[in-house]
Amino acid sequence: MKGIQKYILLVFCSLSWSLQAQQPYKNWSEIIRKSEPAWFGTAEAKKVAENVLLYQRDIGGWPKNIQMQQELTEKQKRDLLTLKKTGVETTTDNGATTQEMLFMSKMFAQTQDERYKESFLRGLNYLLEAQYANGGWPQFYPLKKGYYTHITYNDDSMVNILNVIRNIADQTNYYSIKPSNDIVEKCKKSFDKGIDCILKTQYKQNGVLTAWCAQHDEVTMLPANARAFELASLSGYESVKITLLLMSIEKPSAAIVTAVKNAAAWFEKTKITTLEEERVLNDAGKIIDKKMVPAVNAPPIWARFMDLETNEPFFCDRDGIRKTSIDQIGAERRNGYSWYSDAAKEVLKKFPDWAVKNGTKVGAAVKKNVSLITVAQDGSGDFTKIQDAVYACPAFPYETVTIFVKNGIYNEKVRIPEWNTNVILKGESKENTIITFDDNFSKIALGRNSTFYTYTLLVEGEDCLVSNLTIKNASGDHGQGIALSVTGNRVKVSNCNLLGNQDTLYVSGKEAKHYFKDCYIEGTTDFIFGSATALFENCVIHSIKSSYITAASTPEGTAFGFVFKDCKLTASPEAKEVYLGRPWRIYAKTIFLNCEMGKHIKSEGWENWSKPEAEKKSFYAEYNNTGEGAAVSKRVKWSHQLSKKQAASFTNAVILKDKTDNWFLK
């Protein structure tokens, strides 16, 4: 009986070992990446390795899209032996060559078979030999006619190569094979050349660095076309791994820091949160249809192809004709290609910590107790960009953090997020410290709510103070384009120029209180709009053309909406008929007290925006205004003229009362 039990146990153990040794993965790349180290020492792995050796050309590279674990016939083996002496179809596209090198490294680690080491080294030599003098790599080497000669970032080809070469150059333990010192030195030089190529191919859009194209011309280094449906464009996918590679470099140069910061800003600018991908699968789980559906606050995604000048996503079928949405192209390309990706979220997730670590003063120690951060374009401050200074601010600080911005024109989109409270953003001078950007509704192109993404400066943090700055939306009179967007509570803006056209200033928040003092605010249509309670004191409100000054969306039951005290209403010569306001929402409240109104103000004063019900539910009022535009005899009947007693109740303390008393006096 004991003998039978022993026999059963041996059979069971043998079967268990056999099952563990079998390779569960069907895809070649998964076999390499996911297999346990011990598997590479099995007979099964050695059998696969013979195939891999056969597929490798004498030049050192491998062809792509081959399931090398599949058993070969004798004829196939003979054919591969014939091909070995050629360089036919050797490439780094779709992970080819770099993944086979990893396989050989894992095989050598388990077996110490010199053939695997030699194979790996031939592959490494192939990569070094294929590199252009400018640091880039073609898709195929030996060179293959057509777009294959372009510097290829497509499907992360060049990043994969650089990661291999860096591991050799840094002499890490990632690969089991240790090349000679001569080869290590060659890899160091090769890596540096590759990074230099990346920096030189980063695309400048209106003078501002953005991201990369999937292919760049090997001579001019400019974006280049590939297949008919792969037109030159900024890539929301390939640019991700490039940026992450640059971010992984220890002690980066100033050029690398600049490249990463601009790439991250571009990803932030081009993210899409208004669409979600919807897939239709058949019974076998295969995609049979794919479409994009509108969504609210969807997880961010990025288009694979974006216009080089406008960042607008586009899509192509095999006819090479650009379309504006994927439903305009055929099912074969629509369902068989990755048109959107969420990969860039990794860049934005890692970027804040990276930015703190790698300010413009590369390698400088990070301040533990931050109270003053200086921004200067000449490098004399802590940072050269305002957004980088914001990234360096602690979250929810106990003490105020001042970002002092020296004179200069800062062409950037700045966001002070809700966790950056108690921030003072202060310019050296209102006239010469300028934050400017040129987004507008059409340029953003994110659907019907695109306006809210057009800001130049967005203040979401509570208890913030903005002063001595010019904040400009430079897109021109081309539709909605916000200069300053304020959504945080208890935000004070003083001695600032707010410049734009339609929708210059957005003040939002159901219970938010905002205070604008000694500011110059100009625009065209509805250039002061939103739902917050906002007090404007001693401000110049300048209309560029005949239209509307305010468009309040005051929530029902809110005591105050927009209140203008001691302000001066001026206009350009072209602006001859300007309304004080109209109701964006029917409970709008707007009041002008002791203001000087130019002759450009229409005698009717207010307009109902084709909303008759607003005439009963809105509250538009005036008191003691002066100037040609202040005549009240022809004001619309549903507006109000306050008495002296009523007007006396509109004190700053009452209007701006919040849990933090007299916050507006800081």
From TrEMBL:
Catalytic activity: [(1->4)-alpha-D-galacturonosyl methyl ester](n) + n H2O = [(1->4)-alpha-D-galacturonosyl](n) + n methanol + n H(+)
All copies of domain Pectinesterase catalytic, residue ranges: 373-657
Associated pathway: Glycan metabolism; pectin degradation; 2-dehydro-3-deoxy-D-gluconate from pectin: step 1/5
PROSITE patterns per UniProt: PECTINESTERASE_1, PECTINESTERASE_2
PANTHER family recorded: ACYL-COA THIOESTER HYDROLASE YBHC-RELATED, PECTINESTERASE 53-RELATED
A GO molecular function held by the record: pectate lyase activity
Annotated family: Belongs to the pectinesterase family.
Identification of the protein by name: Pectinesterase
Taxonomic lineage from the root: Bacteria, Pseudomonadati, Bacteroidota, Flavobacteriia, Flavobacteriales
The EC number(s) this enzyme carries: 3.1.1.11
Keyword Methyltransferase attributed: no
UniProt cross-references to InterPro entries, sorted A to Z: Pectate_lyase (IPR012669), Pectin_lyas_fold (IPR012334), Pectin_lyase_fold/virulence (IPR011050), Pectinesterase_Asp_AS (IPR033131), Pectinesterase_cat (IPR000070), Pectinesterase_Tyr_AS (IPR018040)
Leader sequence segment: 1-21
Key words of the record: Aspartyl esterase, Hydrolase, Lyase, Signal
Pfam family, one: Pectinesterase
Organism: Flavobacterium hungaricum
